[in-house]
């Protein structure tokens, strides 16, 4: 239910003390928990937007109601603020920020350093050993596949140092032609160093330069009549050319990532297609933590900042949405990487095809994730167990109330089934004839209007009825059902926890005289919270529409006899409603179609 409690933090007073410099701001609740981190080119203007706007998104309004203090850090430039914001979000994990969640570090190919015979290896974790790290790669499979290719093409060892130092004869990799056996001295240091250099060039995306060098070396071997070496180089060049032909993607930039985002049912998926040297390295999907009301562009902006600001970035990022402050992000990435980075959201040709591929992949991965362990079916079954029902509910309805200081109250009813939200069954009720701000009366009226049809044998009957509120609200629902003679519906109140944190809700079963605390890991509570939040969103949006319509409505519309033509004529004649209000009866009569009686009615309506 929309909160009307007074705000504990005096945001307006705090804003007056702020500087206009760029920087980062942080919001904390009364317990000291970090709620949100944001950056600003003008701290005074940006922070002020939270406390001076008359209307805010539900997510922002919910956050502001919890703010107990705000801290700021001034930076020299907006770019520095962007970097600091990204670092703080990743390290502190604020509740209301979009957070890139990935509990695994990214895989790399590691080339050891400080050795006569360096090794190539799979690496994940801190990059603090001497040597070079190539990546990050989109997946473990991509790294393993690349290492397999390196063994075939350049024969650089991949064995552990302990194994390498204790060999007395070549291993199986030498016998199958995937290593030159440096462990037993079958290759010189110079030749091995050449193989390592070519491997580095290949991993840097310079495969064409490697081919050119090998081709030149093959010609020199032929001139020297070293036909055995020339044949080996010929085969290596042929293998590299074949690899390029197999893996090269027509239309792909030498260095490019294609990024798309899809959001559904409170979950987001960001899918990235990686291209290096015109070769596709594969795809990786990310599922960032998503607060309410986030848009794909917001998710992509946070993803790009959190993912690329501390790792190698390609020269081109193709994005499914135009980002807010896209130019600033490109500037910061360019400065961080040491080369020009372009962010493009309007593309054609092959790039548009790659973007469509990323979008399809994001949608498919999101659909698969939603249908995995935490499916609606699982949640419905868990709710059945929690409420001790004979079978899983087939239809859940939830009611919520929204108003602003009692003005223009709207009640919402949303419906969920085993397949998810059934939006065609959603309903809103404009509440009237009650004491402003009386939520109990508003709930009673909405429930009466909804279940009167059920009592008359019309409309579907829910198995579970959720009421956003405590025992008083639930009692209203029970009274309505009793008055109408409707039975067989389980009525559940959803009350927020003491700290109003998600996962701490209490389920109230008044008719059974008990309360349930499922806890944040309960699939049943996840379902209840999703239905409750959807009802809350639907109620707030309905209230806002009703309020905006009321504000846009002209007083003249309530005067009998004044239709759209006469209203237009009045407004045009007097230059707007203030001019009509200032006119007397005689002046009003000069407008075509308005006689004395109608002019007097108009005058009385405008002057009370």
Automatic annotation (TrEMBL):
InterPro entries registered for this protein in UniProt: GIY-YIG_endonuc, GIY-YIG_endonuc_sf, GIY-YIG_UvrC_Cho, RuvA_2-like, UVR_dom, UVR_dom_sf, UvrABC_protein_C, UvrC
Subunit structure, interactors included: Interacts with UvrB in an incision complex.
Boundaries of every GIY-YIG domain copy: 20-98
Keywords: Cytoplasm, DNA damage, DNA excision, DNA repair, Excision nuclease, Hydrolase, SOS response
One example GO MF annotation: hydrolase activity
Source organism: Rhodanobacter hydrolyticus
Gene3D superfamilies named in the record: 5' to 3' exonuclease, C-terminal subdomain, GIY-YIG endonuclease, UVR domain, UvrC, RNAse H endonuclease domain
UniProt name for this protein: UvrABC system protein C
UvrC family homology region profile domain: residues covered: 258-481
Functional summary from the UniProt entry: The UvrABC repair system catalyzes the recognition and processing of DNA lesions. UvrC both incises the 5' and 3' sides of the lesion. The N-terminal half is responsible for the 3' incision and the C-terminal half is responsible for the 5' incision.
Compartments reported by the entry: Cytoplasm
Domain UVR as annotated: residue spans: 208-243
Family label: Belongs to the UvrC family.
């Amino acid at each position: 239910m929309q909160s009307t409690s007074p705000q504990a933090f005096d945001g307006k007073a705090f804003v007056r003390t702020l500087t206009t410099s760029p920087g980062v701001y942080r919001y904390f609740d009364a317990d000291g928990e970090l709620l949100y981190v944001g950056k600003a080119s003008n701290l005074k203007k940006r922070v002020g937007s939270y406390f001076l706007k008359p209307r805010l998104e539900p997510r922002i309004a919910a956050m502001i109601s919890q703010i107990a203090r705000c801290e700021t850090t001034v930076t020299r430039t907006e770019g520095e603020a962007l970097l600091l914001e990204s670092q703080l979000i990743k390290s502190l994990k604020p509740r209301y920020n979009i957070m890139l969640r990935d509990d695994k570090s990214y895989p790399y190919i590691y080339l050891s350093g400080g050795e006569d015979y360096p090794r190539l290896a799979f690496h994940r974790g801190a990059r603090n050993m001497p040597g070079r790290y190539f990546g990050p790669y989109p997946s473990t499979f991509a790294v393993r596949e690349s290492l397999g290719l390196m063994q075939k093409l350049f024969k650089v060892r991949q064995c552990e140092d302990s194994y390498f130092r204790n060999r007395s004869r070549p291993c199986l990799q030498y016998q199958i032609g995937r290593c030159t056996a440096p462990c037993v001295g079958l290759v010189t240091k110079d030749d091995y160093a050449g193989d390592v250099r070519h491997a580095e060039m290949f991993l840097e995306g310079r495969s064409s330069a490697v081919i050119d060098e090998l081709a030149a070396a093959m010609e020199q071997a032929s001139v020297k009549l070293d036909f055995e070496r020339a044949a080996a180089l010929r085969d290596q060049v042929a293998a590299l050319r074949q690899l390029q032909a197999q893996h090269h993607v027509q239309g792909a930039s030498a260095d490019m990532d294609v990024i798309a985002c899809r959001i559904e049912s409170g979950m987001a998926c960001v899918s990235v297609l990686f291209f290096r040297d015109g070769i596709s390295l594969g795809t990786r999907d990310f599922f960032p933590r998503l607060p309410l009301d986030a848009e794909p562009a917001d998710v992509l902006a946070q993803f790009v900042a959190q993912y690329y600001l501390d790792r190698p970035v390609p020269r081109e990022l193709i994005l499914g949405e135009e980002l807010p402050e896209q130019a600033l992000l490109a500037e910061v990435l360019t400065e961080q990487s040491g080369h020009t980075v372009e962010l493009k959201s309007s593309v054609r040709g092959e790039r548009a095809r790659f973007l469509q591929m990323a979008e399809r992949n994001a949608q498919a991965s999101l659909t698969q994730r939603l249908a995995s362990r935490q499916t609606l079916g699982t949640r419905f079954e868990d709710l059945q167990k929690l409420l001790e029902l004979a079978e899983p509910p087939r239809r859940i309805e939830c009611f919520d109330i929204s108003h602003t200081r009692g003005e223009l109250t709207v009640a919402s009813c949303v419906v969920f089934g085993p397949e998810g939200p059934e939006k065609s069954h959603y309903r809103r009720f404009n509440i009237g004839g009650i004491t402003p701000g009386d939520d109990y009366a508003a709930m009673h009226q909405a429930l009466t209007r909804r279940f009167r049809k059920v009592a008359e044998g019309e409309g579907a009957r829910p198995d579970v009825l959720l009421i956003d509120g405590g025992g008083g609200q639930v009692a209203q629902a029970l009274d309505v059902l009793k008055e109408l003679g409707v039975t067989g519906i389980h009525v559940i109140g959803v009350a927020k926890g003491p700290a109003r944190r998600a996962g701490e809700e209490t389920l109230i079963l008044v008719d059974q005289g008990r309360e349930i605390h499922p806890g944040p890991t309960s699939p049943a509570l996840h379902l209840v919270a999703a239905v409750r939040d959807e009802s809350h969103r639907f109620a707030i949006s309905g209230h806002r529409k009703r309020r905006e319509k009321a504000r846009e409505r002209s007083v003249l519309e309530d005067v009998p006899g004044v239709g759209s033509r006469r209203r237009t004529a009045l407004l045009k004649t007097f230059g707007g409603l203030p001019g009509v209000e200032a006119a007397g009866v005689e002046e009003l009569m000069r407008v075509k179609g308005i006689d004395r009686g109608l002019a007097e009615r108009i005058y009385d309506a405008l002057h009370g």
